[in-house]
Write a structure and sequence with these properties.
The chain is α/β, with parallel strands linked by helices and about 400 residues long. It contains 13 helices and 14 strands. α2 crosses α9 and α10 runs parallel beside α12. It binds pyridoxal-5'-phosphate. Pyridoxal-5'-phosphate binds next to α3.
């Protein structure tokens, strides 16, 4: 028995909280997959997904988690022996690169550590040195979910343009699509990757690959691709059965339709502004706690922090102890630190993450912060005062959406 009984908040960075409306949309009988309503729905789903990524180009849907999307993105654009430049800012870009290596692609890794974003000067120097244009593609995550850093995608495009480098720009937006500002076509991104279970509030199991004309051209000579991962039959929703490479993910599509409707009703700019303001509330609380104890935001510069997930260091084994405390005593499940220390190193227990992506509002964030504060007290971890007041003051600011 504890104070945890009641509705829980799963504050891990994927899967995110699934809204009741999305859950209800799935609670229905299996539909015909050869004709009928669902067949007609897919064109609208694809249109609305492309609006989130801000692209007029193609979108393929895979029945896969994000890892499947990683594989699809590489397979359709590369041949064994090609070189990928990996801009590593935490565990997730490295994870993507492991899939590229598994397909026979050669990796060229620029590692920017675990507490910062891509250094554009270092990138520019690296691109300038590649006079033979050996680098076929640049892999980067918009938000690295492990470190909670946000990379400057337009800045990376600029570095490629200024170097006159033809590499494809491929961006993983799995943690950030719908949560952060993003403009695939406006920013000159060739390929964008997303998945259903984070900002899109749908259960895990759908991966989305958006590809522009330069990526489509790379597909024509890609030697890594196999029949299942080929995106060409998946580019035309009217060919419903081929579009999914077999049976459609029926109930995921009902769920996704409901989630896309919720985003459209709120307005994408308002969704993004909600994420931005709630993120600032979390940072304000963490700054207050940190002024009197060991708690540290992993990314020091607020301009480089994700609005969807916050990685924190607490030292010792306090991160793991806090997660256990809030789950067992307050009904809040926090994310564990990943990739912050070498495998097996007990220092990993010093980290934790708060996910604030998707179906999250002020009372959930204030409640999670209250639970964290209670946990710090219960565990005897020193912390400064005023954290909840600081977060509430941010929530009290007028809501400012550009939409
Ligand atoms: C969650 C995540 C992934 C992996 O997604 P899975 O569905 O777990 O395979 C990849 N990249 C980023 C940035 C993520 O946040």
């Amino acid at each position: 028995m504890s104070l945890a009984n009641g509705r829980e908040y799963l504050a891990i960075p994927g899967p995110s909280v699934v809204p009741d409306r999305v859950l209800r949309a799935m609670h229905r009988a299996a539909p015909n997959i050869y004709e009928g309503d669902l067949v007609g729905e897919v064109a609208g789903i694809v249109r609305d997904l492309k609006a989130l990524a801000r692209t007029a180009h193609d979108a393929a849907i895979y029945i896969a988690n994000g890892h499947g999307g990683w594989e699809a993105a590489i397979a359709n654009t590369h041949s064994p022996g090609d070189t990928c430049l990996v801009l590593a800012t935490g565990r997730f870009a490295l994870g993507w690169s492991e899939h590229a290596a598994g397909l026979g692609v050669t990796l060229d890794i620029l590692d920017f550590g675990r507490a910062g974003d891509v250094d554009l000067d270092r990138l520019a120097a690296h691109l300038a040195a590649d006079t033979a244009h050996r680098i076929k593609s640049v892999l980067v995550v918009q938000v690295d979910t492990a470190t909670s850093v946000k990379n400057d995608i337009p800045g990376i495009r600029r570095a490629l343009d200024e170097a006159g480098h033809p590499a494809l720009l491929m961006v993983d937006c799995i943690a950030s699509l719908a949560c952060e500002e993003y403009d695939m076509d406006g920013w000159g991104v060739d390929l964008t990757l997303a998945a259903s279970q984070k900002g899109l509030m749908t259960p895990p199991g759908l991966a989305f690959v958006f590809f522009g004309p330069r990526a489509a051209e790379a597909r024509e000579t890609a030697g890594c691709v196999t029949t299942y991962w080929d995106w060409r039959p998946r580019a035309d929703p009217a060919r419903f059965y081929e579009y999914f490479g077999g049976t459609a993910p029926t109930h995921h599509l009902f769920a996704l339709r409901a989630a896309l409707d919720m985003i459209a009703e709120e307005g994408l700019e308002a969704v993004q502004a909600r994420h931005a303001q709630l993120a600032r509330a979390i940072w304000a609380a963490c700054d207050a706690w940190g002024a009197g104890g060991p708690l540290r935001l992993n990314i020091a510069d607020p301009a480089k922090r994700s609005h969807a997930v916050t990685a924190l260091g607490l030292g010792g084994a306090h991160g793991a102890a806090l997660r256990r405390w809030t789950e067992e005593n307050a009904g809040v499940t926090l994310g564990l630190g990943i990739g912050m220390a070498p495998p097996g190193d007990p220092a990993a227990d010093g980290y934790f993450r708060i996910a604030h992506m998707g179906h999250v509002n002020a009372h959930m964030v204030l409640g999670a912060l209250g639970a964290i504060g209670a946990g710090l007290s219960a565990l005897g971890v020193p912390h400064g005062p005023g954290a909840l007041d600081a977060a509430a003051a941010i929530c009290a600011e007028p809501f400012a959406s550009s939409g």
